[in-house]
Amino acid sequence: QGCTKTKKPKKQPKPPHENGNDSMIEKTEPEHVDAPAEFSFPPTFSVSEIKNKQRRHLMFMKLKQEKRKQKVAMKKKKKKERDALGDKAPPKEVPKTIENQRVYDETTVNPEDEEVAFDEGTDEFSAYFNRLTNPKVLITTSDRPRGRTVRFCNQLATVIPDAHVYYRRGLALKKVIPQCIARGFTYLMVINEDRKVPNGMVLCHLPDGPTAHFKVSSVRLRKEMKRRGKDPTEHSPEVILNNFTTRLGHSMGRLFAALFPHDPQFVGRQVATFHNQRDFIFFRFHRYIFKNEKRVGIQELGPRFTLKLRSLQKGTFDSKFGEYEWVLKRHENDVCRRRFNL
Questions:
Q1: At what angle do helices 114-121 and 247-257 cross, to 10 degrees?
Q2: Nearest one of 220, 204, 341 to 276, comparing CA atoms
């Protein structure tokens, strides 16, 4: 008696080609679009914003290569223009460097300045330049030096005539300096180290100072140098001082010059060079070789290192009560970066 419901069969969906609606085809296909070969980022985009390291490196190399291509194309274009103009071509632009953008220093020394000549005639180095004293150098290290620092000191002793290397034995410099003066030393050189690498130098002129503190970097011993010459001989070398133009630079030049004897022995053909560039003092030790009557070659003997002046103190070493003539300050703006002290 009860009525039964009959289930209607479900309609199966027609395939897309039978429906006649093309939008279904577009929905079923995967959304994949190939990126163009040359993809340009907006000007505010930075490569560092890419999180993936490999993609970031790849994109950086592509941008670098693109800049290099543009630079080469610009050079070729300018060269063609210059060739086409011939003699009427404008002069070449001088590239901007730190050297030619250097701010003029008021303390630059004029060689004919009488005031500077008087000051240098009465300073701490006047006895040496008047040939009243002969240099004698004591080289020591910080406490418990490592092998590399000891070898560096021994090689410095072969560069500087009449230099003697002594072990520090934990003595304070205030106790070492009176002993040096009593034994006739004119210089005390202390090589400091950090993590087994020489990183500092204290150069104290005796008996009246001054004392200079340098940062030491880029130290290369003789065995680490390629195509080096034989070990230096005991002849006194010539000394070359380059670009020490300011009052402070003159003081540094006189400080280095007083390390070596007055009269170099030209038979040894050895040259010690202190080259100042952007307040970095590069030291090189060469031997020059006569190939024939017109050609002369040089052969580096080593060691080589770079100095950076940190401070200049009046008198002998005194870390507590010493008076400083000059202390290195950090650069505060772009103008200071183009101003050099030596």
A1: 40
A2: 341
What pTM was computed for the model? 0.73
* Residue 109: predicted pLDDT: 83
Residue 169: strand, helix, or coil: coil
pLDDT value at residue 82: 86
Cα separation values, 144 from 150, 158, 319, Å: 10, 22, 21
Pinpoint the alpha helices (H) of 20-123: 23-28, 53-85, 114-121
Q: Are 334 and 227 in contact (CB under 8 A)?
A: no
Low-confidence residues of the chain: pLDDT under 70: 1-42, 331-338
Residue with tokens 């007083």: 258
Of 254, 285, 253, 292, the C-alpha closest to 268 is 285
Residue-level length of the chain: 342
Q: Which two tokens stand for residue 289?
A: 């070789």
Round to whole Å and give the CA distance between 342 and 333: 19
Residue-by-residue DSSP string for 296-327? EEEEE-S-EEEEEEEEEESSS--TTTPPEEEE
3-class state of residue 268 by DSSP: helix
Distance of CA 306 to the CA centre of its chain: 7
**Which runs of consecutive H residues, i.e. helices, occur in the chain?**
16-19, 23-28, 53-85, 114-121, 126-129, 147-159, 173-182, 247-257, 334-337
